[in-house]
Amino acid sequence: MDTSETENSGSALKARQLSKQVSSPEGVLTILDNVSLEVRQGESIAIVGASGAGKSTLLGLLAGLDVPSRGKIWLGDDEITALDEDGRAALRANNVGFVFQSFHLISSLTALENVMLPLELAGVEHAAEAARQALRTVGLEPRRRHYPHQLSGGEKQRVAIARAFVVEPEVLFADEPTGNLDKRTGETVIDLLFRMNRETRTTLVLVTHDLDLAARCDRVLYMDAGQIERETNGHNGGTESSPQEAAQ
Amino acid sequence: MKTDARTTVWLAVKLLARDWRAGELTVLVTALLVAVTALTGVAFLTDRVGQAVEMRAAESLAADLRLSSNQPIDPDYAGLAARSGLETARVTSMPSVVFSGEANTLAAVRAVTAGYPLRGYLKTSNRLLSDVTQTDEVPGPGEAWASTRLMARLGVDTGAALEVGGAQLTLTRVLDFRPDEGWSFVDLAPTLLINDADLESTQLIQPGSRVSHQLLFAGSRSAVDRLKPLLQEQLKDSENLRDIGDTSPQIRSSMDRSGRFLNLASLVSVLLAAVAVAMAARRYSHRHRDRIALMKCMGASQRLIFRSSLLQLLMLALAGGVIGAFFGYLSQWGLAWLMRDFIGQALPAPGLQPVVLGLVTALSIMGGFALPDLAQMGKTPPLRVLRQDLDPPPLRYGISWLAGVAAVLGLLLWIMRDTRLVLSIFAGASATFVALGAAGWLLVKSLRGFRGAAGIAWRYGLANLSRRGKESVAQIVAFGLGLMVLLLLSTVRTQLMDTWRQSLPENAPNQFLINIQPHEVDAMAAFLAERQIEAPAFVPLVRARMTAINGEDVTQMTFEDPQGERWARRDSNLSWTSTLQADNRVVGGEFWQPEFIGSEVSVEQDFGQELGLSLGDSVAFDIAGENVTATVTSFRTVEWDSFSPNFFMVFSPGVLEPFPATYITSLYVEESGRDAVLDLMRNFPSVTAIDLDAVLSQVRDVMDKAALAVQAVFIFTLLAGVTVLWAAVQATRDERRYESAMLRTFGASKKRVLGGAATEFVAIGLLAGLLASAGATLAGYLLATRLFELDYTVSVTLWLAGPLAGMLFVGVSGMAATWRVITHAPVSVLRTA
What we know:
The complex is a heterodimer.
Chain A: E1 11-24, E2 27-40, E3 44-49, H1 55-62, E4 70-75, E5 78-79, H2 85-95, E6 96-99, H3 111-121, H4 127-137, H5 153-165, E7 171-175, H6 183-200, E8 203-208, H7 211-214, E9 219-224, E10 227-233, E11 240-241, H8 243-247
Parallel strand pairs in A: 3-8, 3-9, 6-7, 7-8
Antiparallel strand pairs in A: 1-2, 1-4, 4-5, 9-10, 10-11
Chain B: H1 4-21, H2 26-59, E1 65-69, H3 75-83, E2 87-100, E3 103-112, E4 122-125, E5 133-135, E6 143-147, H4 148-154, E7 161-164, E8 167-177, E9 191-195, H5 199-202, E10 212-218, H6 221-234, E11 239-243, H7 249-287, H8 289-297, H9 302-338, H10 340-343, H11 353-377, H12 397-416, H13 419-446, H14 456-467, H15 469-502, E12 511-516, H16 521-530, E13 539-549, E14 552-553, H17 562-569, E15 571-576, E16 584-589, E17 600-604, H18 605-611, E18 618-623, E19 626-638, E20 649-651, E21 662-667, H19 674-683, E22 688-691, H20 692-731, H21 733-745, H22 750-787, H23 796-823, H24 826-830
Parallel strand pairs in B: 3-9, 6-8, 15-20, 17-19
Antiparallel strand pairs in B: 1-10, 1-11, 2-3, 2-7, 2-10, 4-5, 4-8, 6-9, 7-8, 12-21, 12-22, 13-14, 13-15, 13-18, 13-21, 16-19, 17-20, 18-19
Helix pairs in contact in B: 1-9, 2-7, 2-9, 2-11, 2-20, 7-11, 7-12, 7-15, 7-20, 9-11, 11-12, 12-13, 13-15, 13-22, 14-15, 14-22, 15-20, 15-22, 15-23, 17-18, 20-23, 21-23, 22-23
């Protein structure tokens, strides 16, 4: 595979030698250390590891929410590390969806309005219709007028999934999507997430500490101390490979 | 897909509507509305009261404009006025001897046309000492109305036949009051009012006779403003145009003071409003950081977010400005209705200027106090969706302060149009901010020592205060400033108003005696002493005409101030004294020593400014054909509302004594002792007594209106203050709700949580109250001594009221907000979106 830094055909997402350092009272702290990876179009990957392993930092960088201290990232054919904040935002608007552990629904907006928000930001006409359809897909259309505080945790996450998919993103980033849910609700939500992922052929980047959940992805990257320690194939099995091989 | 601009507008409208519906904007909008309502309510009311005060002043002219001449007035002027939509009335006055049988006396005969007076009312009675009523009429043809003094001199009552020149008239009513009764020694003889139609038959207008012609104008303010320059263009040398700005010094002094009081109150509303809006905006921006991060995460650009926030702010300001102005309009009508018994006359309708004020206020407050926080909110990093601890870069205090200061200063200057006053009050308020901030910080710092002193509620309350260090200080400053202003207004209002009223005591002189001949002075003093009327000071008066200033002919001089030119061209009343009168204060130069003999003159400050005089200038007068020159050695201020005889120009002994002088004096005569005045007039026929009661009640009326307006304004300011308190409590409410829920979840009783909150609020209130008392005392002292030139005494009430009001206000408001937290089930608070 061509790993030149100017082309990225075939990859939905690619990162080369990413590092992130922050200053702390104890001195400079390396949170992410020389991480490279590549995710193919329609592929699902899980990033797993203990707390503080650098999973969320990596997710933030891959989604263009933060900038690396070193290294480069491509989203599709666009190098996001070469863009300023507004440029990265514009790229996200057209290509990226998010599902968060704490749902991040806006408390002053109804379920429908929460789903409409990304469409409105992208200037899409008939946002309400599309949002309603998305809520129907997650089975919450009848609750569209409810505010977040009137919904259960599982329902909130389903609204968040509808919101993530409504813009038909190329890549969906999910940060511990079941972290705040009980096992049963979590499973329902994850079934929904994977079903929609399959149906829309979206690339999925999932951060989790739940190995069962991670195993449902095509590949699993294990992180420790800011590095990808190893990689396995998902779907409950598969061969193990080194980070270098994974990046190839 | 929509264009960027459409997306921005659409997003701004939608988010605003959703925020409004979800109650996110309630505090901000309420603060803004209260601010604008308060300010425009004040503006509408002061506009109306101001107009009423002006109208009252206009009554002393009996018109809005008065054209006077010693020549008949061109009828074209009346035509011009009619075309401008103004009413006119004609007054022709002349001195004439009036006969009734054998008796006769000199009277000021005034022939008037229907409609006179155009401003104010005549008051008449059917017989001497009978009930006085207000009337719209004027004497009919063949009738005459005479003043009490004239009737006393003629020894007649109504029904008597009078002979005025060649006319035979019947005395039909007693003229008890006319609004244009001057007391500036112009109309000395008692009045006889007749109809203009009888003027010709009196045959009093002959070549060379001393006749004064007046044409009165009245109408809407805009019509008057349009007509005035037209008239001024056409004025002949013999003609003189006066408007209410030129009325007697007493009315002007009262108007100045009432204007200052009202402006002060407006200023307070602006400051409180700004504080409330800033607090509400801060809370709003804190609550919406997650949304901004999420929107950025979904691809919203920084520019889109900023523009849409700006647009939302603009829409809020416009809506707040218009709706607030509407509420202001409603509330001032309500207030005017509530006060109808005190006002006694219908207030004129307000102008539309306050609506503009409402919009400008809303925009300035939002721009200066909400914009910095909203702009900062837009800088929230998108990574906050993953890391809640990520906040936008801290707001640079320099920028936020600069914006606020610029907004307040700009607005205040626009409202008050008095740079010095605005700057001095602003400096005072800033110093208070700093002092309150420093004191608040000290308290918060010192709390650690008290935390172990009492129970858990106490410890929790103080710990809270200490933990929210910056917020606590901010609240103490806000509460302190709010309370200070409230105290200041209540104490300044009552204390200063009382002091001001005391300068017009109940036994202020109510009779002015003029034209007393030098040989009558001793006899009159004895006469008054006999009737136990306090022996007054007799002040000499010499009539003179100013001829030159520093050797330059005044008729050839040009004066910067048109009033100065008028003074220079008319007869002056001069006096002399060896000692300064008690109601005079030297403000420049030095007053001569009691034993001094020489050619010096002390000039009233405003009068001197109008004439452009400086210390050391020489002024020359023509007195009975002789030239007299004196050097200006001091400037004085005069308390005109003391109603003692006072002069613009007072000479040192040694200049005026050789010239023929008359004496004047003023006395207080009780209502029951009015007979004594009639007796006095019979015993001293050449002396003229001027009844000051009418003038006094006119001045009191003006003062009452001013006081009333300030009280009304105080109600608005109180509302604004309460909003500040509410906004401050709201600012920390989310946090409190969460913490109380946590404490209750861990097993704390309602009482304990309540006790902790009470400790915190009462402590904040106590300190804010103490600081407010200190600040109000200082500000009251400065205002009294520097601005209003009144005495100030420290008030014990103020020192009790401050801390008590603070504890009560902050305690009750804080508890009201906390109460809802406690009545909420903890789980509903802990379940977040």
